[in-house]
Amino acid sequence: PRPILLTRHGESRDNVRGRIGGDTVLSEAGELYAKKLANFVEKRLKPERTASIWTSTLQRTILTASPIVGFPKIQWRALDEINAGVCDGMSYEEIKKNMPEEYESRKKDKLRYRYPRGESYLDVIQRLEPVIIELERQRAPVVVISHQAVLRALYAYFADRPLMEIPHIEVPLHTIIEIQMGVTGVQEKRYKLMD
Ligand code: F6P
């Protein structure tokens, strides 16, 4: 069995300010997580010389991967966070106040709701298909450093969760979800590296 490690990027400046989307760098806590993650990965995967690190093309995942040395890194656009379109950079409160209809329709059907000029969860699930195919094909461990919505979809695929649940799955910051694919099925462990 070989592990797949799923994690969100370390806390970003936008996470601190409560803004969605964007392309900011890490907060101090986020930088600390990046170091702890590197430690964890080096210990956990040391014997597996063929492991690789996959990130999105956004700064916050690339910076989270940067303290990890000795493994190849690959950037995937398909691992970028859900595109919030016209709402990119806003807080949920701002969306609720300035675009109440949008806020309500997302609340009603978070899976199918598509941000104006952006994406829905269903769109994200669809664009992840090549990533999933490649993950299944890999024989070596993979560390996937990505974003909340994307990791909900990836996790749901491996943990066999129903489509409707995907937008609501808990994927906290600073936590590694380890998935083991063995002959007896999928096993899961969570490592919370910071509070
Ligand atoms: O707030 C962090 C974040 O990754 C945003 O960039 C993104 O829009 C959001 O989470 C996705 O979560 P939800 O679908 O619950 O809004």
Structure summary:
This protein has helices at residues 13-17, 28-45, 59-65, 92-98, 100-108, 121-127, 129-137, 148-159; strands at residues 2-8, 52-55, 73-75, 142-146, 175-182, 185-192. With 195 residues, it is an alpha/beta fold.
Index terms:
six-stranded mixed beta sheet, binds 6-O-phosphono-beta-D-fructofuranose, single chain, 195 residues, 8 helices, alpha/beta
> What letter string, H or E per element, gives the SSE order?
EHHEHEHHHHEHEE
Q: What small-molecule ligands were found?
A: 6-O-phosphono-beta-D-fructofuranose
Which runs of at least 5 residues are low in confidence (pLDDT < 50)?
none
Task: Note the quaternary state here.
Answer: single chain
Mean pLDDT: 96
Strand content: 15-25%
Query: What global shape is seen?
Result: globular
Which strands sit side by side, in order, in the main sheet? Answer: 3-2-4-1-5-6
**Based on helices, strands and strand pairing, what is the structural class?**
alpha/beta
Total beta-strand segments:
6
- Quickly count the helices: 8
The helical percent reads 25-40%
Q: Major sheet: size, sense and barrel closure?
A: 6 strands, mixed
From the N-terminal CA to the C-terminal CA, the straight-line distance is 30 Å
Radius of gyration (Å): 17 Å
